[in-house]
Amino acid sequence: MRPAIVTITIHSDQTYDATIALNVEAILADIGPLHEDTNDSPNAATYNELRKLPPAELRTRIDAFGVALLNGINIIFDGERSQPDIVAADVPDVGDAAFQRITRIRLAGRIPRNTQQMVWSYAANFGSSAVRVGRAGEPIIQSAFLGPGEVSEPFPIGKPLELRSTGQIAADYVGIGYTHIVPKGLDHILFVLGIFLLSVAWRPLLYQVTAFTIAHTITLGLSLYGIISLPAGIVEPLIAASIVYVGIENILTPQLKPWRVFIVFGFGLLHGMGFAGVLTEIGLPQDEFLNALISFNIGVELGQLTVIGAAYLIIGHWFRNRPWYRQAVIIPGSAAIALIGAYWTIERILL
Known about the structure:
Helices cover 52% and strands 16% of the residues. It is an alpha+beta fold. The longest helix is centred in the C-terminal third of the chain and has 31 residues, at 289-319.
């Protein structure tokens, strides 16, 4: 479940328009942020039926749901909630049902005179949102990444927008990177746990995590610069397959082998392309591109270290030297990780 990407443009004639790129079928099916995957929801069947609708029929559903949709969108000027109109809904053709169909809904409304600031929020049951605000004809874009139901800091619109500081941008993207691992990145969490299980000693763990970080940083940067590109239909099943490999290797290999670091590096290249899909949708500020990219990777690394630290405190610290640790923890834990990864691999290939 990706965040809605919201672009709000302020015009000099006291009007604004807002384009929201979102998974509208998930909202229509009442699948909220509690579910990492739409298949985990009791409303999955409704969602899958909506995914099969041609664009014209889905637009009819959107029109019928319009009031409820607008009630979940809060654009507030100096404390006064705007009442925008839905002026367009661009629904793509039916594609690969394993991936989200991103609909773009365009809103338009008026801004009260002498307005100084604007606040955005998105209904909690709609999920997360990444909002970008700019004035027509001006190059500066201000942005914020918000969790479900969170309210943005005020965007000053009564005067030309000012560039956010390097530190503010860094803090934003560290947060985005961290939350992409904890709690949203279950596939990445399982991969990191698979790395952890075979050896809980800090030095080999550090080698593997460092190799993984360097690798995903390389492909993330190359993907965002447009140098390399692989479709999600290839990348996502391969990421799931990497989880299977790590789990199976843990079962078959009683101790860490020298080649494990190189394997982890190779899989890190794949995971970096997966991260690129998120950042491509959210966007990176062109004037702070490298800062945002590095900050996102720092957030990802902090998320990985959180997973490893929690696993160490819960399992490794207490049980790693017990004679039954491999039989009671490594093998069943790795088997569970491999089975989940296998399920995802098949699901991402076939659905």
